[in-house]
Amino acid sequence: MATRLLSHCLPFPKVFLKRFSNIKSYINLGTEMKLLNDKKQFKKALALFDQHGINNILTLSNFTITQVLKACAHKGDLQRGKIIHNLIASKTKNDIYVSSTLIHLYVLCDDIASAQSLFDSTKNKTPAMYGIMMKAFIKNKQANKAIALFNEIQNPNDVHMLLLFNSCAQLKTKEALDLVKKISKQIPKSFYSNRHLLTSLLDALMKCGDVAHAEALFYSSKDKVLPMYGAMMKGYVDNNLSEKAIALFNEIQNPDEVNINLLFNACAQMKT
Prior knowledge:
The chain is mainly α.
């Protein structure tokens, strides 16, 4: 009798354990996908989502949603990303991380129209969203749009200013140069420790033809890095000042491949 009762009850623990296992994998899905994304194993992350998450997408956490969207973005899987966007449309209104990740997806997949549409419809725009869109406009040779977007930002950070300088460098106009000078005067001193920002500013000044201003900024900088030398050398070559480019190259202790190529360009310009 006891044996029959035991055999009757045995299936229950098995079913319970199976369900518990499914719940556990469901709960850990976002974390497991993040681990794969961090290792750039985006294909595996999407396969994991297809196995455990696709049928429960409306009940998944926003964290998990951002992970699958990141995987789609890096795999260039725009179609899958759009399908997921349609399924979770309500989440984009309330979660800035989901919205930001979706915008990034559209930008990486070169669907700028969808990215801009989502950006424009987002009420609580984050600094990161502005940066993503500015970068997208620059990539698509729409520098004026990037500048217009910059003007909407109340408290731009160093990334926004770097992107603004990149926009002005792309335009190479007097108006762009005036804007570069205006913004550079407003930069907080703390921003000047950002070498990427300084390199971008030097590049913008050179491409807009203000060699003297670029030189003053370059030589006043104590911590010069190779990209700064590169921006100056390229600027000299672009402004037909190849002798200055060669002289500057001789100041570099350990030139990289970019600096060496710029030296060759300067020499070719002089035909020496």
